[in-house]
Amino acid sequence: MLNKNKNLKIYYSIGEVAQMFGVNESLLRYWEKRFPQLSPKKAGRDVRQYTQEDIEMVRLIYFLVKEQRLTISGALQRLKHNKEQTMRNYEIARRLKAVRAELVQMLAALNDHAPRPDEPQPVPGSTQPQPQADNP
């Protein structure tokens, strides 16, 4: 299999994955024990090698446990009985977050270009400059 994207790695270490999600490595090891769907490849001396699929599963577990605030047993139940709907909900939430982030950026850009309240505003359709306020 040819890796077309040179920046895309095939395997990630547990430290790299932990850093991606801002969690401890011990939490990832705990999730591996509790979630049978998460089972990264183990190389010599039990060095974990996470694939892109493993990272997507971590992303889904993170969504359920950290963002949706489900218990481990609740997240397990969702993945076991309703994985497709859970995946759809995750995708919807991810897209909505991206839209929100874009809207926040737009608002910040608009606020950066908004005139200050103390600046004189031009009158629409007028070519005359607005009189300046007298400064005593």
Shape: elongated
Range of helix content: 55-70%
Lateral arrangement of strands in the main beta sheet: 1-2
Tell me the number of helical segments per DSSP (H or I, 4 or more residues long).
Answer: 5
The second-level CATH architecture of the domain at 14-82 is Orthogonal Bundle
Q: Can you identify the CATH class of the domain at 14-82? A: Mainly Alpha
Please report the total strand number as a whole number. 2
Strand fraction: under 5%
N-to-C order of helices and strands: HHEEHHH
| Terminal residue distance | 77 Å
From the alpha carbons, calculate the radius of gyration and give it in angstroms.
25 Å
Mean pLDDT: 85
Model regions low in confidence, pLDDT < 50 over at least 5 residues = none
Q: Name the structural class.
A: mainly alpha
CATH topology of the domain at 14-82: Multidrug-efflux Transporter Regulator, Chain: A, Domain 2
Largest sheet: 2 strands, antiparallel
